[in-house]
């Protein structure tokens, strides 16, 4: 597919890199020549210097023949104008990043007028993910499938856990819970495990199941924590605004500490149910005055990764139960994995995943087996992809036990109407199912490709 991306910032470069690796013809437009030079040297893409909100630059980029135009500059207005022009010039589909809450709230009204196929709001998506973690604080990461009916949850096996030394086949016998451990990270090694795999303390495991079954499993192994009742947020930006709105709606007490006085005044107006404090969130005395050690959760959302990490580590040192830090630079995951911080959130990664999922769904739409949901796990080493099976294929109707499963892929869940199936060897994929595949194979775009892994 031919894809034109306007804006080569953090989100744009992440999307360009992912889509180019998937074999798409990617053209990036940006005004900054040094940024484009770096992108051209590190990725297999074509770069054009210029203003992507002008018709002649879009024409030079060949937007007339583009399958998708993606506008992800730092300005919402520019993104919407790019998409409007791109649609008029012939782009088949357009995607805009729209971050301003006032614009995004009315997006449904103007989407058709702009010709938008999709609007992406990284900050809102990040806030939603944080809110999900705060409702289920035992987890490091939670990825929803089937509109939230199935969840893929990451957790770290603590010392002295009953899971230590237990093979996977013994879990149901021991705990009577319907879960599937579909990926394990042990130090730098990532495994899609078989039933004979033996767990160890320190392993990071990814579990798929319904929310109820995961809660039962967490209680059984002694790590269940109730959802939080109070949250302290450092930084009053857009993510903090969206997060506070979501938490206030479920009656969670929210306190936001923000340095900028004008921003504090604005937040006081739009978040009447939250407490807004004007101050420096890195000030230890202020944190204690505002009740750091009594809060259930601590979330750092400033624009600086270093501040977020340091304040998060301090909160964890003070025994705050759930600590979440926002980061922009995710390339140092080896270091992040060893830090005593419960969860990390990267808005640019979330936005890129949403857009890549849309592109994959378009790519295989002619086969009718569409990508519904896409998440990357374990520092992008594993993908979890939800497919909707709309047609007959060689994999339909055959029990999974009749295949010789190869390393690197597992069928993690089958959603059949209202039924959630955590599959055993007796289960089979049927037409009409939604199927969650977890795999170390990157860029899986068609469920029929699993024949490479489930082959007779």
Could you explain how this protein is built, in words?
By secondary structure, the protein is of the alpha/beta class. The chain contains 15 helices and 24 strands. It has helices spanning 10-21, 33-42, 55-60, 76-89, 101-105, 107-114, 122-135, 170-175, 211-220, 238-249, 261-270, 284-289, 305-317, 333-337, 347-363, and strands spanning 2-6, 25-30, 46-49, 68-71, 93-97, 118-120, 141-145, 150-156, 180-186, 189-191, 204-209, 230-234, 253-258, 275-278, 297-300, 322-326, 343-345, 370-377, 382-388, 404-405, 409-416, 419-421, 434-439, 454-455. Strand 13, helix 11 and strand 14 (275-278) form a beta-alpha-beta unit. Helix 7 (122-135) packs across helix 10 (238-249). The longest helix has 17 residues, at 347-363. It is globular, with a radius of gyration of 23 Å. The chain starts with a strand and ends with a strand.
Percent helix, as a range, is 25-40%
CATH superfamily of the largest domain: NAD(P)-binding Rossmann-like Domain
Structural domains: how many? 4
Biggest sheet record = 6 strands, parallel
Number of helices: 15
Q: β content, as a range?
A: 25-35%
Runs in which pLDDT lies below 50 for 5 or more consecutive residues are: none
Q: Output the radius of gyration.
A: 23 Å
Give the strand line-up of the largest sheet: 3-2-1-4-5-6
Short description:
By secondary structure, the protein is an alpha/beta fold.
What is the topology?
Blueprint: E1 2-6, H1 10-21, E2 25-30, H2 33-42, E3 46-49, H3 55-60, E4 68-71, H4 76-89, E5 93-97, H5 101-105, H6 107-114, E6 118-120, H7 122-135, E7 141-145, E8 150-156, H8 170-175, E9 180-186, E10 189-191, E11 204-209, H9 211-220, E12 230-234, H10 238-249, E13 253-258, H11 261-270, E14 275-278, H12 284-289, E15 297-300, H13 305-317, E16 322-326, H14 333-337, E17 343-345, H15 347-363, E18 370-377, E19 382-388, E20 404-405, E21 409-416, E22 419-421, E23 434-439, E24 454-455
Parallel strand pairs: 1-2, 1-4, 2-3, 4-5, 5-6, 12-13, 12-15, 13-14, 15-16, 16-17
Antiparallel strand pairs: 7-8, 8-11, 9-10, 9-11, 18-19, 19-23, 20-24, 21-22, 21-23
Helix pairs in contact: 1-15, 7-10, 7-15
């Amino acid at each position: 597919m031919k894809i034109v991306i306007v804006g080569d910032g953090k989100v744009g470069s992440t999307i360009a890199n992912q889509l180019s690796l998937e074999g798409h013809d990617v053209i990036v437009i940006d005004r900054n020549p040094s940024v484009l030079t770096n992108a051209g040297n590190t990725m297999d893409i074509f770069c054009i210097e210029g203003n992507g909100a002008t018709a002649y630059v879009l024409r030079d980029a060949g937007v007339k023949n583009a399958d998708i135009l993606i506008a992800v500059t730092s300005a919402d207005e520019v993104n919407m104008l790019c998409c409007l022009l791109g649609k008029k010039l012939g782009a088949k589909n357009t995607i805009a990043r729209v971050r301003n809450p006032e614009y995004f709230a009315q997006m449904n009204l103007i989407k058709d007028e702009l010709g938008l196929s999709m609007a992406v709001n990284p900050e809102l998506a990040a806030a939603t993910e944080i809110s999900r973690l705060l409702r289920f604080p035992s987890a490091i990461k939670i990825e929803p499938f089937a509109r939230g009916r199935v969840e893929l949850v990451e957790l770290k096996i603590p010392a002295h856990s009953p899971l230590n030394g237990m093979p996977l086949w013994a879990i149901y016998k021991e705990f009577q819970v319907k879960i599937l451990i579909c990926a394990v990270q042990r130090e730098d090694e990532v495994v899609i495990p078989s039933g004979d795999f033996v767990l160890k303390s320190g392993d990071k495991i990814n579990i798929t199941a319904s929310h109820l079954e995961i809660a039962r499993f967490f209680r059984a192994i002694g790590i269940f924590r109730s959802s939080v009742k109070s949250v302290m947020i450092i930084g009053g930006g857009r993510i903090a605004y969206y997060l506070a709105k979501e938490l206030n709606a479920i009656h969670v007490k929210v306190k936001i500490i923000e340095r900028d006085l004008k921003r504090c005044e604005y937040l006081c107006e739009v978040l009447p149910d939250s407490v807004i404090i004007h101050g420096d969130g890195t000030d230890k005395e202020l944190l204690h005055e505002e009740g750091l050690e009594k809060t259930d959760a601590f979330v750092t959302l400033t624009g600086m990764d270093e501040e977020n990490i340091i304040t998060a580590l301090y909160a964890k040192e003070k025994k705050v139960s759930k600590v979440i830090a926002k980061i922009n630079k995710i390339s140092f995951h080896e270091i992040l994995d060893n830090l005593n911080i419960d969860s990390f959130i990267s808005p640019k990664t979330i936005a890129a995943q949403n857009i890549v999922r849309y592109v994959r769904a378009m790519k295989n739409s002619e086969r009718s087996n569409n990508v519904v949901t896409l998440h990357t796990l374990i520092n992008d080493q594993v993908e979890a992809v939800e497919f909707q099976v709309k047609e007959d294929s060689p994999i339909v109707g055959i029990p999974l036990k009749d295949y010789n499963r190869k390393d690197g892929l597992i069928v993690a869940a089958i959603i059949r109407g209202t039924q959630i199936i955590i599959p055993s060897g007796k289960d089979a994929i049927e037409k009409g199912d939604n199927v969650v595949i977890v795999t170390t194979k990157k860029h899986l775009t068609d469920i029929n490709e699993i024949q490479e892994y489930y082959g007779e």
